[in-house]
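Reopening this one. Same input as before:
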Amino acid sequence: MFDQSLNFLTFEDDFQTEKVLAGEQIWETLAVQRTSIVFGVTDQPWAPAAYRINSIVVQLEKHLSDWDTIAIDINGNARLIRHNSVVYRLHCVILPDTIGCHSNFFYRCPECNGHVYQCNCLRISEFAQPKPETEGETKNVIICPKCGGKIQKLGEGVLFCLDCDWETGFNPVEELDN
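Same output, byte for byte:
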């Protein structure tokens, strides 16, 4: 689906990516692969924080979560990619020459009015995590979306990384006091 070097983005239905809106961490991570200088990808005013990796323009989008991306085709059809593991087909049109989004509207599902991560209405596919490298490791090893380290599972939906500060499913401290 999403090659780390961004030489290509592949989707099951031959979606052709023209531009990528990237959360801050993705934007910074992919910057080392750029084939044009930052701020110099185009003379157009809509790309002030952008660069090109081969034929794909990568533009910073401040309203996206740090590790999310939106792939856009030439017609403005869009796919939200969460942590390089789940793809959602967005109902909105985001034209490739968009300067930047003014809200995080793309996280709202128009079918159930919920957050796209809490519903399955827009989900296209989910990708399996890589298999462990050695036989001694368990078959259910999950790889951290932030650093590639090992994830520890404490219960259904409660995960944390053993190698960095990434976590999900924990209740905020304020909720535990009540």
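So the earlier flakiness isn't reproducible anymore. For the record, The longest strand covers residues 150-155.
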